[in-house]
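[Discussion] Sanity-checking designs against the backbone

I'm trying to build intuition for which residues belong where. Below is a structure token string of 188 positions. I'd appreciate it if someone posts a full sequence so I can compare it with mine line by line.
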């Protein structure tokens, strides 16, 4: 009996390691977007991810039929939400999403970066679907208004930077949202 148990434990550990190795990078990036830390140095995001992965590992045997990525993402978002809305735990933020409040960041990361449907996002964070839609639209408006800067008219020197910010040049390919938001000029 003991041999069977150790074999099962080893199999479980190997399955989880494979999952964590495959999904860890994307989940860490989502956590960094939530916390507003730079991806290369994100201790708070790492702590959130480790706690979410620990919860997933504890629930691993009960996840049969469920997607462990969804389970971990849900736990990550809920952990962030619990800590972010606590007034004593707010920390200064940097990056593209720094202008947004915690609720707007959660909605934007789940909807645009993770691709979660409005209904699922609403159920996950306990808000009506209409409210999630409104929060997402407001957050997108805020990002467009404050990050798109047009270059000054006139001649430009070779190598000069004409626009400032992650949306410069009309492309989001280098932004943390990975092209999820079309530039204002391309939407007409």
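Best answer:
Here's mine. Compare freely.
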């Amino acid at each position: 009996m003991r041999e069977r148990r150790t074999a099962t434990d080893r199999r479980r550990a190997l399955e989880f390691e494979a999952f964590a190795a495959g999904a860890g990078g994307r989940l860490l990036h989502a956590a960094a977007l939530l916390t507003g830390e730079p991806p290369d140095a994100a201790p708070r995001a790492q702590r959130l991810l480790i706690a979410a992965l620990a919860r997933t590992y504890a629930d691993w045997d009960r996840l049969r039929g469920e997607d462990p990525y969804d389970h971990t993402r849900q736990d990550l978002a809920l952990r962030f939400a619990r800590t972010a809305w606590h007034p004593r735990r707010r920390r200064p933020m940097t990056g593209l999403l720094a202008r947004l409040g915690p609720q707007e960041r959660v909605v934007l990361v789940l909807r645009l970066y993770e691709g979660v449907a409005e209904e699922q996002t609403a159920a996950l964070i306990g808000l009506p679907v209409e409210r999630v839609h409104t929060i997402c639209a407001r957050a997108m408006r805020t990002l467009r208004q404050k990050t798109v800067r047009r270059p000054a008219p006139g001649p430009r020197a070779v190598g000069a930077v004409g626009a400032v910010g992650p949306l410069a040049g009309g492309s989001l390919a280098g932004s943390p949202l990975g092209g999820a938001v079309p530039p204002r000029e391309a939407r007409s």
